[in-house]
Amino acid sequence: MMRRFPFMRSSLGVAIILLAACSGPKRATLTLPLEPVAYADTLPIEPPEEREVNEIKRLLVISVGGEIGYGFSLRRWIGRGHEAVNLTRFDDVVSSAWFEHRIGTGRLSPQEAARGPTTLGPDTSRTLTVVAGKAEGISPGFTIRDARGDRYLVKLDPKGNLHMASAAGVISGRLFYAAGYNTPEDYIVVFDAARLAVDPEAEITVEGEDRPMTEEDLARVLALTDSLPNGRYLALASKFVPGRPIGPFFFSGVRRDDPNDYYHHEYRRELRGLYVVSSWLNHVDMRFANTLDAYIDPPGYVRHYLIDFAATLGSGTIRPHKPREGSEFNFAFWPSVGRVLTLGFYQHGWEGVEFEEYHSSLGWFPAERFEPGSWRANWPNAAFRWVTPADGYWGAKLVAGFSDEHIRSAIKEGHLPTEEVERTLARILAIRRDKIVRYWYGKVTPIEQPEVRTLEGPEPALELAFDDLGLKERVWEAGATRYEWMLKDVYHQIEAAGRAEAGVGARQRITIPLDGLDPDLPGVAGSKATATLRIRAIRGREREGRQATVLLRWNGAAAGYSAVGLRH
After folding, report:
1. pLDDT tens, residue by residue, 118-156
2. Which domains, from first to last, does the chain contain?
3. From the CB of residue 151, how many other CB atoms can be counted at a distance below 10 Å?
4. Cα(465)–Cα(448) distance, rounded to whole angstroms?
5. Residue 292 to residue 183: CA distance in whole angstroms
6. Which of 126, 202, 295, 376 has the smallest CB count inside 10 Å?
7. Does residue 503 sit in helix, strand or coil?
């Protein structure tokens, strides 16, 4: 039951803690939650069945039914502000089959970000065997097998927008990977049509039916894009991921045939934080159809991938993006009701916006008009629905990890036509990054790396040191920053509050008096906290959105505290 209802599990936990606080002993302590274990979800399991999904039916359910249901949902109000459940004690996630720490460590070089998950890439110097084709749908293309035996899905740019979808797919794939997510190996390839050979067993999908593919079919697919001036073709080649594909993952619930899939997806911090990274890269098509679970054997576990990034940046895959994309769902029930009831007088912010492509290879990708808190994917996403300020802040830290050099290096892999186009895209991504950091850092008190020590003397005091990421990223100035703090130590029966001015630099120190401290009290063992220190940053005349809480434990042998937890 607890596995199926993590919200209930967490609510019960909070209730138990509150009851303990009201009725417990005088020297109360707080039991800290057990931390997730890195890669605990990669234990060997039996192979799950491949999941087949009726895409149209599911889109109707999550868009029409989901929108109406969300509007009247009791859970919407009861669960508002419910935090993610797969958190470490310091408000982070561990590396897993879903996410690995990369850019957030501060050690990922621009060259590594540009390389992403790639290895050799397709061998275009010899014959490329076409083993399957797709002449219809959103993104026509075909599947090839190179001389090394590796398979790639080849996707073509739409006519009139050469480079647009292919560059977006490669660049965004590199950036999502650097952020920490699992992505395929995506490459820009240039090839001669003469090197393509249709396999005798190849099939193509036409009008929803599969039939043997011919050279004429291949010619018709190639005619859907523009060739380069030298007559060659440019496309995106996405390598098939390792393992056996077993269908997409959903942004809610769990995969019931995967015992490692413990946390409901809408309560996973890395999937909620994905909202922020998606908003940065304008991935409006972030839905289940662009995800993939693969069974990795050996050792035998499910790895979760994000795939297909052609509808990112300014690209809508088959055309440039339009102002509605990123602003409103494809089926926006309540805005549609508003338009009907007001006879069309009600307008959303995107309506009436005049736009034009920045360049045929970039499409439409707004910078100044971008609003991080109101960005929307094209389809409702359950994990995105429940994003809290702490989730958004976590995602913003990933985006903040990308320096201008990281961005420029990834853009180079997109093989855009000119350096001027590359500089334009880099400027847009930098502006959107900075807006995201300012917006989400302002929703919390963005402190990290808390350390404490007890100062000896006639009047004992506690010194707290921490990094203020708002100052570190130069979002705010130290001269306009101060902190409100409140210490509550139920073990020593101490309560204190005060203010402190910010010092120079990102590393801050606050001295807190400990009137009534009894240094002879024994320490507390195990997963216990004995005190909470709440901090709220004030920038100018404005308070930050939420205070941060540092959890402290008393060490009797050292007659001092240690920081054992952090929440934003």
Report:
1. 999 999 999 999 999 976 656 779 999 999 999 999 999
2. 1-11+53-437 (no CATH), 447-567 (2.60.40.10)
3. 16
4. 9
5. 9
6. 126
7. coil
* C-alpha to C-alpha distance for 332 and 340, rounded to whole angstroms: 12
CA atoms of 386 and 80, how far apart (whole Å): 7
Residue tagged 């130290």 (tokens): 478
Amino acid at 176: F
The two beta strands, 196-206 and 209-212, are antiparallel
Query: What residues form DSSP beta bridges with 538?
Result: 482, 543
Backbone angles phi, psi at 244, to 5 degrees: -100, 120
In 3D, which of 239, 243, 241 has the Cα closest to residue 300? 243
Rounded CA separation 342/223 (Å): 46
pLDDT > 80? residue 547:
yes
Q: What is the pLDDT of residue 334?
A: 54
Kindly report, residue by residue over 351-402, the tens digit of the pLDDT.
Answer: 666 777 889 999 999 999 999 999 999 888 989 989 999 999 999 999 999 9
Name the β-bridge partners of 152. Answer: 144, 239
Question: Are 384 and 377 in contact, with CB atoms under 8 Å apart?
Answer: yes
Distance of alpha carbon 292 from alpha carbon 247, whole angstroms: 6
3 state SS for 282-335:
CCCCCCHHHEEEEEECCCCEEEEEECCCCCCCCECCCCECCCCCCCCCCCCHHH
The pTM of this model reads 0.90
Number of Cβ within a 10 Å radius of residue 107? 9
Computed on alpha carbons and rounded to an integer, the radius of gyration of the chain in Å comes to 26
Q: What spatial distance separates the first Cα and last Cα of the chain, rounded to whole Å? A: 28
